[in-house]
Design goal:
The structure is a homodimer of 368-residue chains.
Chain A (H helix, E strand, L loop, with lengths): L1 E2 L17 H9 L35 E6 L5 E4 H5 L4 E8 L22 E10 H8 L7 E12 L2 E10 H4 L5 E6 L2 E2 L9 E3 L12 E7 L6 H4 L3 E2 L8 E2 L6 E4 L4 E2 L6 E4 L1 E10 L5 E7 L7 E2 L1 E2 L11 E9 L2 E11 L23 E7 L2
Chain lengths: 368, 368
């Protein structure tokens, strides 16, 4: 990491300032989940959200090597054949970008302008990281494990390969994988080919793609993505607190049909089965409530049975509604078993991260 | 098609008006090709551009039927098994959205705000439409063939299933396919599962997805997507001319590395092999010229050998450059065998369609 400038502050848009071409350039290259695709239990290829800080790198799988180094007894270097020969498991996980919902915040932090579509659920296949660290022999004084990808760029003046650390205890969880397959196929380039990290329950910044290096540290990692980016703070001088596990969120698959340009929604009066998904990286989803009158009255949605094999995958929910002609606003709110829920008023921070404000879906109900 | 309002005019943004939340809602749900993915001859799954006017419909492949009707001797209804039992062929085709480049136009037509990434190349497998029309027996008076999808929405007050007509002569081309595979796999939902139309050489609006109905007409089709949308006009009262075949375009795979937020590009001084792709739906690409000084001097790029088996797929090009420290602007310009080329000044129309203004890639060259 070369510091080629100052670690300048994240920019906040002026009141009423439209989305700039810089933000649009991020929106057109990063992919969101069209919300009707909440209908799929597992997100079909190409519809899972993707955020890449820099370019998608061109990695030659034959020449690829993974280095395990730092405060370990036996540094390791593995090629793809060696990694794939290790014991493998598959896990279905919902991933969400820490910046999901950012573009609706007021004032708007200037960065990737997600509305609410930075989410997806996939089955990842790989080998547990813990066993590999066990073979390398982690030093008793280890505190952090740093994961470095081959994606290269500049951020607020700092030229870097993308690198993020996990606390050692998280890195040793049995469900943290070095994954080489997504949905039973080799990783596509945009999801980290040939190998990425998958940390169920954490926001996307922890899921390092195009992985090349794992380094065990005996002191906390001070790299850009942990120390500067991905921190919750409201004052630019505040060091803030780290962004970690995904807060609970429910999303409604918008009913009816859209206007192409405005994305306004229309449906016909009568019985409607509302459906959607809910997830939390902190504890299983315990409850989803739905409002069809802008948040005045709430009723419990019906949750699909929990699948203990996939504790970090989203859970389907449904709620029956009899729509009457007129305009109304649909809301859904998830609560997890830890008691965390979603706010109805925004909780703002300077980078617009880990925001889980309740979604509002305005619809126009037409006569039957 | 029910006209539930007026066919109001497309909106043009005010000078200096930022991208609105309506345009952003389109940008976050529709997918562009990150330009570094120009490196792939065939676009990997999930990186091909996608534009859906309305929602991606949920189509049950088992219950799916295709109707061939209208001015034919023998109306037909086929299920997926019957369609897939027909003679199949595969074709590699570059598709581009008619609105590509719209967001850089001044003033900006308000619609899907593509910068330059609405393109992709895929191998499509399906059965020739012409043979199916032959079996149905097209009336001697036929002029248009209308293709209707199951995607449903509203556009400028008109509620509709997406429907587009082709002139009969185009529909009878031997390379126009009813496709059920993309890259050797069943179509993904966002690309038209289970069956879509593929019309090599035409902009994306002709490539009707989620196809359910083919109707032969003895008079010109007057539906919304042909008569109102997808027309080139500068005056709102002008009926305009239809958008049809893809104009020539070359794109540069931006060299070096980006700034995450601003997408500014950096590279080190020294020899650089510039590369990219060029295509035209009107005639084979004959020439690509490159400028590294903002358009003052131009040199010919080297074109990869033409592949006669894939006349509608993009063609790779390269150009060697010795980069010196400082800021400069890279341009590439394609010309096809019909003599069509790309303008250096924008050719504006009210819907920002079929614009092929030369791309400009500003880069900062750092000392070696």
């Amino acid at each position: 990491m070369t510091d080629t400038g100052t670690r300048s502050r994240a920019r906040i848009a002026e009141p009423g300032e439209g989305i700039g071409l810089d933000e649009l350039a991020l929106a057109t290259r990063n992919h969101g989940l069209p919300l009707e695709a909440l209908r799929y239990d597992v997100t079909p290829p190409g519809l899972h959200y993707v955020l890449t800080h820099y370019d998608i790198p061109a990695v030659d799988a034959d020449g690829w090597r993974l280095e395990v180094t730092g405060a370990v007894d036996r540094p390791l270097t593995l090629d793809l054949t060696a990694l794939r020969a290790r014991p493998a498991l598959s896990t279905r996980v919902t991933l969400e970008c820490a910046g999901n919902g950012r573009a609706r915040l007021e004032p708007r932090p200037v960065s990737q302008p997600w509305l609410l579509e930075a989410v997806g659920t996939a089955t990842w296949t790989g080998t547990p990281l813990a066993a590999l660290l066990g073979e390398a022999g982690v030093s008793p004084g280890a505190v952090d494990v740093v994961f470095t990808g081959s994606d290269h760029g500049v951020e607020r003046g700092v030229e870097q390969d993308y690198a993020r650390a996990l606390p050692l205890a998280e890195a040793l969880r049995p469900d943290v994988l070095l994954a080489w397959e997504m949905g039973g196929s080799p990783l596509p380039p945009q999801h980290g080919a040939p190998v990425r990290l998958v940390v169920p329950g954490w926001y996307g910044m922890a899921q390092v793609k195009w992985l090349t290096r794992i380094e065990v540290l005996e002191e906390p990692f001070e790299g850009f993505q942990n120390a500067v980016a991905y921190r919750l703070k409201t004052d630019p001088g505040d060091p803030g607190t780290p962004v970690e596990r995904i807060r609970p969120r429910a999303l409604v698959a918008p009913p009816g049909w859209p206007d192409f340009m405005t994305r306004e929604r229309f449906l016909r009066a009568g019985p409607v089965r509302l459906c959607g998904r809910a997830w939390s990286g902190r504890a299983p989803v315990a409850r989803v409530e739905v409002s069809t009158d802008g948040g005045r009255a709430w009723t419990d949605a019906e949750l699909a049975p929990a699948d203990p094999a996939h504790p970090y995958a989203w859970r389907a929910w449904t709620a029956d509604w009899t729509a009457s002609p007129g305009r109304c606003e649909l809301l859904a709110r998830a609560t997890d078993e830890a008691g965390d829920t979603q706010p109805l008023e925004q909780e703002w921070n300077r980078q617009g991260m880990a925001n889980n404000l309740v979604q509002r879906v305005p619809v126009t109900v037409l006569p039957a």
